[in-house]
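Example for tutorial group B:
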């Protein structure tokens, strides 16, 4: 499951603007995606421990 999440994150991070057509000149959408992924890892680690 973690591998699937990683692949989906990389695909959305790299090609999301082309697929969904959003304009991200300042990089704010990519920052939000990265933050959500990072916080998900942290929360998942804390729950699993």
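The residue assignment follows.
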């Amino acid at each position: 499951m973690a591998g699937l999440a990683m692949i989906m994150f990389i695909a959305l991070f790299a090609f999301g603007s082309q697929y969904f057509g959003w304009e991200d000149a300042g990089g704010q959408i990519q920052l939000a995606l990265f933050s959500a992924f990072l916080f998900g890892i942290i929360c998942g680690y804390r729950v699993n421990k």
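The chain is about 80% helix and 0% strand. Compare this with the pattern of hydrophobic and polar residues in the output above.
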